[in-house]
From TrEMBL:
The keyword Transport belongs to this UniProt entry's keyword annotation: yes
Descriptive protein name: ABC-2 type transport system ATP-binding protein
Basic and acidic residues bias (residue ranges): 211-228
Domain spans labelled ABC transporter: 5-231
Signal peptide start and end residues: none
Residue ranges of coiled coil: none
Pfam families: ABC_tran (PF00005)
Keyword hit for Flavoprotein: no
Biological classification of the source: Archaea, Methanobacteriati, Methanobacteriota, Stenosarchaea group, Halobacteria
Amino acid sequence: MTIAIETQDLTKRFGDVLAVDGLDLSVPSGTVYGFVGPNGAGKTTTIRMLTGLLQPDRGTARVDGVEATRRGKLAETLGYLPAEAPLYDELTGREQLQYAAQFRRLDDGDRVEQALVQYDLLDAADRRVEGYSTGMRRKLGLAQATLHEPSVLILDEPLNGLDPGATRTVRELVETVSDDGTAVMVSSHDLTTIESICDRVGIVSEGELVADERPDDLSTGDGDRDLETAVLELTDQ
Ligand SMILES: Nc1ncnc2c1ncn2[C@@H]1O[C@H](COP(=O)(O)OP(=O)(O)OP(=O)(O)O)[C@@H](O)[C@H]1O
């Protein structure tokens, strides 16, 4: 079994705030991994260290065996969608993906058109991004993050602000990408969706991992405790 995402003793402090505190994560390839916890628990800070955007004070982060500090190499294996998709409002959806393809030096000219179809954006492909809804922006962000067919995909709050239909679309896209063998890490407060799409769930509280289990094991077999209750209990809320 290969490891898609691994951190060892990962630590980051901002002044008096210990945002991430000696975090040890190990996410096997092919897994959809839910990364949950209360506001300020350290999820985004962890993700920013995994994507090489932030230097840890201590410890290491690796994605598909690549040290997160090697950003050039990391870009080949990692797809990352931050909470606010990095899009240019003045471009059309197609131009945005063409720009990303150029940036990534993808030779396959069909890849952009395939992505527009896969992410159900063909009808909107020639409209400027500034007119896109939250759900359309998220789909375009996902299309951009997966254009190079990464082996690991990290999504920070991909479900935020989405209506049930758009939530389902993103959920299905995660499942499709995962079926193709990509490991997906999803941070979210939508615990119902996390419970339904994730193979494993890591719960962070005050920068520490307090649980790392299958959703069924966290929510207990007797049906009395769902994931939301488990998260509330384990994070002392
Ligand atoms: N650039 C920064 N400067 C100062 N403090 C920061 C910075 N980034 C994060 N923090 C602090 O680190 C802690 C963890 O923040 P982080 O954004 O990682 O939490 P989170 O789990 O992603 O929260 P949320 O669910 O609210 O998005 C918080 O106390 C936050 O205020």
